[in-house]
Design a protein that fits this description.
- The structure is a single chain.
- It contains 16 helices and seven strands.
- The chain is α/β, with parallel strands linked by helices.
- Strands 1-2-7-6-3-4-5 form a seven-stranded mixed β-sheet, sandwiched between helices.
- The longest helix is centred in the last third of the chain and has 32 residues, at 334-365.
- The relative contact order is 0.14.
- Bound molecules: iron/sulfur cluster.
- Residues 284-286, 298-300, 303, 305-306, 327, 332, 334, 337-338 line the site of iron/sulfur cluster (SF4).
- The site of iron/sulfur cluster has 14 residues, from α14 and α16.
């Protein structure tokens, strides 16, 4: 069987998500669905469609929540490009947990953007505020219940954690988690561990259970962070984080959706005509000719357009099922299907871009941007 390695900085191509259960000990998310139901918590769209497929310790997090103990959700964004539909997936999960009463922490990973992605400082700061924070506000994250910060301007004991973590891990352990590693990646990984764990320090609200919703490719950071939390025992009480894992949305070309390859995605501030051209040129799971498609049906399982429907655009399960059946049965052709998808994208973007205008100004006022 081929080796499975997850590279949080690379372009993962995960063919079989179930192997992540055996190889890394991620637990199937369906295990906790019943518990959520018994607590009266409705699953999000991503959970009920199996897009959130795995977890670590989510059941313990539910216990914390049930007992009324403090819970938070934390995520980081690397400001290396625009905010697109892939980021929206994570943003919606933050809103979902905020609505359940979780405190939200959002770290802008500007140190990582500089050290690993080689993004100029001023540009990373602008992207962090005007793309990530502004878009998160525009999709409904409540700034009064969210702590936004940049890694390099975070004050206080957050930085002590990064320094102390350095003595808790060897370079060969780093290599076994990440493969080939550079000093920039080591610092980034330790900083990410501090991002995830610092909300538990007294200075940031004290002991709590922290949930991290991530794409499956980010699990190496979670494994490192959980180990570091255990190794700090006796010095500071840090609970290993819980995490939930979502499948990665395919890019419009069928590969990884990435802001460094703009043709693979649609940015939320994109002019509508640019967005339309990209979406209408997307790869599909369609056949070579209309005649073949009518005869054999399409393959929505392989189709990036259908990913947009299932991950984001169609909330009603019956409607989604109808598109699936019409595609499989050869009743829906790709041109018509894409036009329908783009009309949904247009409707969303028109409204979102109006909100984005207003949220940009707010974004600058609620975060301490780094001085250099
Ligand atoms: S009809 Fe729609 S879902 Fe089916 S393969 Fe074509 S674009 Fe994809």
């Amino acid at each position: 069987m081929p080796e499975v390695r997850l590279d949080p900085w690379g372009r993962p191509d995960i063919k079989d998500y179930s192997r992540l259960y055996e190889v890394f000990g991620i637990r199937p998310f369906r295990e906790v669905a019943e518990k959520m139901k018994s607590m009266g918590i409705e699953q999000s769209l991503l959970m009920r469609r199996g897009i959130v497929f795995g977890h670590r310790d989510f059941d313990s997090l539910l216990d914390f929540y049930k007992r009324g103990e403090k819970v938070a959700v934390m995520t980081g964004f690397v400001p290396s490009g625009g905010f697109h539909f892939g980021h929206l997936l994570t943003g919606k999960q933050l809103v979902y947990f905020q609505n359940l009463g979780f405190k939200v922490f959002v770290g802008i990973a500007d140190a990582e953007a500089y050290a690993v992605r080689h993004i100029k400082r001023k540009e990373a700061i602008r992207i962090g505020v005007e793309e990530y924070i502004a878009n998160l506000l525009a999709i409904g994250l409540d700034e009064r219940k969210t702590e936004f910060y940049f890694q390099t301007s975070r004050k206080g004991s957050y930085h002590s954690l990064i320094q102390l973590f350095g003595s808790k891990i060897t370079s060969s352990e780093f290599e076994s988690i990440y493969g080939e590693i550079t000093p920039g990646k080591i610092v980034s990984a330790l900083t990410q561990a501090a991002d995830i764990l610092h909300p538990q320090l007294d200075e940031y609200g004290g002991y709590k259970m922290v949930l991290v919703p991530v794409g499956a490719d980010q699990d190496p950071h979670l494994r490192l962070t959980r180990d570091l939390a255990e190794r700090m025992k006796g010095e500071v009480e840090l609970r290993p984080p819980s995490s939930i894992y979502h499948r990665l949305m395919r890019g419009l070309d069928g590969g990884k959706m990435s802001s460094s390859r703009p043709e693979t995605t649609i940015f939320l501030n994109e002019p509508l005509e640019v967005a339309r051209k990209k979406f209408m040129s997307s790869l599909t799971g369609g056949r070579n000719t209309a005649e073949e498609q009518r005869r054999l049906g399409g393959e929505p399982e392989k189709c990036p357009v259908f990913d947009f429907y299932i991950y984001q655009l169609i909330e009603d399960d019956n409607k989604l099922n109808d598109v699936y059946k019409r595609c499989k049965g050869g009743k829906l052709l790709c041109g018509e299907c894409k036009a329908m998808g783009f009309s949904m994208i247009r409707e969303f973007l028109e409204e979102h871009q109006r909100k984005l205008e207003a949220s940009r100004e707010v974004a600058w006022s609620i975060v301490e941007a780094p001085k250099f």
